[in-house]
Fold each of these.
Amino acid sequence: MPTDPRAVLTRPAPDPDVTVAYGEHPDQIADLRRPASAGPPRPLVVVVHGGFWRAEYDRRHTGPLAAALAALGHPVAQLEYRRTGQPGGGWPGTPTDVLAGVSALPRLAAAALPGQVAPGPPLLVGHSAGGHLALYTAAHAPDAVGGVLALAPVTDLAEAYRLDLDSGAVAALLGGGPADVPERYAAADPRSLTPLRPRTVVMHGTLDQQVPVGMSRAYVAAGQAAGADIRLVELPECEHFGLIDPESAAWPQITTALRSLHEDQ
């Protein structure tokens, strides 16, 4: 029987080494993992989880991904943030939390993991809605981001609203549709925020049923036309969750893309 691709969402992972807070709310925190191997300090990798910005999905489902990245020698932070369905979640709390967390985590991680975090801005790995939040952060605070690996990101909020992805997820995040709150879409929609300054790799499975691959194709084409350093890697036979599963066939390409961002810093 084929393995359920969603199994990664509940797969056990080793506990993080330490948890740090970047704000006062209980969800303004991040779990840190030390690199498993000794070596020179590397840039922090900040994992921004998905789940269509909803409260029922938290950072814990990225445990296998984060543990695998730490095993490859990266210092890793699993960023948490307020989500829709929680006090302070939605607009503007959700994207503001991620922006604040990404800005604070290099300092917090360097203090908690001495000698293991290289100076400079972190690399962001964002999946699905977390991909949107990583791109949002790179657009609004480019100097705070060393590069972005966006995995099946939601790159067009207006189109996601039109398609009613995850039964109203975008409306829940922004408080309505593009006609209701156009200024929020202008500020939050990656399609309105090109070109990005940080180097960006977008990866998307062609079998994705949660976020259409055409969204990434259009976004990357627009970014390239505007002069951004951005490329798309399409993964045949890969669906939405294989991108965060270290046991999937896609995993070697994920690590290769992250390595390319690290080497170019």
Amino acid sequence: MSAASVLAEEFEVLESIYPTELSVISDREIEIDVEPDYPVEGMESFRLKLSVKYSDDYPEALPTLALEAVEGDINESEKEALLQGMATIGEENLGMAMTFTLVSYLKEHLSTLAEARISLRIAEEREKERLALEAEEARTRGTPVTVESFKTWKMKFDKDVAMKKAKDEEEKLRALTPKEREEYKRIGTRLTGRQLFERNRNLAHEDDSLMEEGTVSVDVSQYDRTKIDEEEDHIHFSDSE
């Protein structure tokens, strides 16, 4: 049987199997719209066009195959993997009409590809959720405080407070007249109530230390008031005075 007769017979069979999907371009070229063998939940519409060009040596030689996305998309690595898979199947079926076998392989592996895409999408979404959760936990947990980190923070805090105080003081002085500025500085040198208290207490301790050893302190309240009164009764004034 001639190659033309083999192709004519095969085209007739393919038209009966794929009445709406098959397009006969010429006596040596066809196109078939191919969808996944079974629907995949969560997968949007996905359909490819398989172009098949037969040589004079078909079916003893592989036809030339090409893929094009009709609905959805397919990247070059996915396309290359599918074409390589069909070529392998074609090698195993040399000498026989192989178009139906090639289309069946493509339909099955489109379903596998769709499942892999869904799994990848789910994995990516879970990874995003995990990263978002870790980021939120880190935000609410904050940075653990250690003795060293607290000292570093305290030094910076004290420095910032001192700088702000100095800046406020400078701005305040700048707004005063020279006379007011002098009076403000003089008032600033006065001791506060607490400072005066601390100073007097220290002076009292210093006075105590200056007392001679063996000196006895006297409590005036212990004197007998009656003796004083008796002494006052013995005082006489002369008439001449």
